[in-house]
UniProtKB/TrEMBL annotation:
It is a multi-pass membrane protein. This is Major facilitator superfamily (MFS) profile domain-containing protein. One of its GO terms (cellular component) is membrane. The chain crosses the membrane at residues 61-79, 99-120, 127-146, 152-173, 194-215, 221-244, 265-289, 309-330, 337-358, 364-390, 402-419, 439-459. Pfam families: MFS_1. One of its GO terms (molecular function) is transmembrane transporter activity. Signal peptide: none annotated.
Length: 486
């Protein structure tokens, strides 16, 4: 069935093989050439040959929906206990700091298995989906095994289950760029990456908003864990029935030979531009994870209720999702990745600075407004940064930079929670156990990394910020036709 008939010019002499070709930029024409062994005649350039027709497939939306669901549920699993930390601590007969360690263990589990997730994603997204589904199922029911009684639970089971779910996260949180690269053209990749990546914080919003409604006293924790386990099971099972890959490549970049994992490490370590994006991305993801986990403890010492703190977390995420839904299609069309990053990064840093003084106003409007701005800027930044990393690193396989970026975010999230927990004021402070010092810490670090992405393209390095994958797809738009099939 013919649909989106955008034309892209791309010639090829024969099917590209990952061992036969390497890519280089033709500085005279601005095109991307493929050179290598096994090519007879010509100059080794993909510019010679017959025109090619590529197809996109409507079935890609099923995989996109499943990836979205799994990112929602794994994040909701993470946010099971944090919004009701005091009730959870009473139920499991531990201190609130132990409940914070459940979130910390979740983040560290990501860091522990992310090299494995890169290897599995390199083989294709479906295997990663199935791996994540199995781990989500096992982890949820281990948690419930230690939470069957209303009178009290086993913290060891809750922690073990959370760690297993944490093992699942990298297989789906890092999958959006790999999936969009395989199934979508460059006119839809940012939006597809945004939908699936931002589903993860949307799940956290569910946890922030719904969990306090489910738990009004400590004995409610048992039923809450059961309900979330059932929902997680329903959301995970469809992963086993998805198609592994499209029948044919959807565009030239989808079949461009990718570098091996070993070669990719060399590229990553030598690219300054990639690190100028990776570092602030990881820091801001880490602070988002920290704020989401500790928002209740940041606000309640100043007289705000659990419900008000939960709504604040939902405001952070829902406003961010709306902003990203508006900005992502625009950026998909304009390809203004670098300009967008240079606008949003300072806005994120300033938002963390202003939030330092919001809890002590004791007026809920202040925190809500700043959280809304922080959410809008942070969520709009996530898909743009992930896609720009792929553009800078092409022809590296997309899962490499995205997994590394998310792993850094999870590692920093764990570190920031530990540091913030250590900076909590004592019971004699005014108000007792406030987190003012932690808020100051996160504002300082957030501002320190702002200059890094602002340096992109400066000092004679503008050519280093070229959109390599877009250029590969859009050279001379007349000789390749992209159509939409079932």
């Amino acid at each position: 069935m013919s649909g989106d008939n955008s034309s892209v010019r791309f010639w090829r002499k024969q099917k590209l093989g990952s061992r036969d070709f390497t890519l280089r930029e033709n500085r005279e024409t601005g095109e991307v050439d493929a050179e290598g062994e096994g090519v007879s005649g010509g100059d080794g350039s993909i510019r010679q040959g017959a025109s090619t027709e590529y197809r996109t497939y409507k079935r890609r939306w099923f995989g996109l929906a499943q990836l979205t669901l799994m990112n929602i549920i794994v994040s909701w699993d993470w946010m099971t206990f944090a919004p009701v930390a005091s009730h959870a601590a009473e139920y499991y007969d531990v201190r609130e700091s132990t409940i914070n360690w459940i979130s910390t263990a979740f983040f560290l589990a990501f860091v522990f298995v992310f090299p494995i997730s890169i290897t599995i994603l390199h083989r294709g997204p479906k295997l990663a989906f199935m791996t994540a589904a199995v781990l989500i199922l096992i982890g949820n029911w281990i948690r419930y095994a230690g939470s069957t009684k209303a009178s009290g639970g086993n913290i060891a089971c809750a922690m073990a289950g959370e760690i297993v779910i944490g093992f699942a996260q990298p297989f789906i949180l890092a999958a959006p760029t790999r999936y969009s690269d395989m199934w979508f053209t460059n006119r839809g990749r940012v939006a597809a990456t945004a939908l699936t990546s931002l589903a993860n914080p949307f799940g956290a919003a569910f946890g922030q908003l719904i969990t306090p409604m489910m738990v009004k006293k400590s004995s409610d924790v048992s039923s809450m864990v059961l309900y979330i386990s059932i929902i997680s099971t329903v959301c995970a099972l469809p992963a086993f029935f998805l198609p592994a890959k499209p029948p044919t490549p959807v565009g030239p970049s989808a079949e461009t030979p990718k570098l091996s994992l070993r070669e990719s490490v060399g590229v990553l370590t030598s690219s300054l531009e990639i690190w100028l994006i990776l570092i602030p991305f990881a820091v801001y993801v880490g602070f988002f994870n920290s704020v989401s986990s500790l928002l209740n403890q940041m606000l309640t010492p100043y007289g705000f209720s659990d419900d008000e703190a939960g709504i604040g977390g939902a405001v952070l995420i829902v406003v961010g999702l709306v902003a990203s839904a508006i900005s992502s299609p625009i950026i998909d069309r304009t390809k203004s990745f670098l300009l967008t990053i240079k606008i949003l990064v300072p806005l994120v840093g300033i938002s963390y600075l202003i939030f330092v003084w919001m809890p002590e106003t004791k007026d809920i409007a202040g925190p809500y407004v700043v959280l809304a701005i922080l959410g809008a800027s942070s969520f709009s930044l996530v898909p743009v940064a992930l896609e720009f990393l792929i553009e800078l690193s092409h022809p590296l396989s997309p899962e490499i930079t995205s997994t590394l970026a998310w792993a850094g975010g999870q590692l920093f999230g764990a570190i920031f929670i530990i540091v913030s927990d250590a900076l909590v004021a004592d019971k004699k402070a005014n108000p007792p156990k406030n987190m003012k010092n932690a808020l100051i810490f996160q504002a300082i670090v957030a501002l320190v990394v702002v200059p890094l992405p602002l340096c992109l393209g400066l000092f004679g390095r503008h050519h280093k910020t070229a959109l390599r994958r877009v250029r590969s797809d859009e050279q001379n738009r007349s000789n390749t036709t992209i159509t939409t099939n079932l």
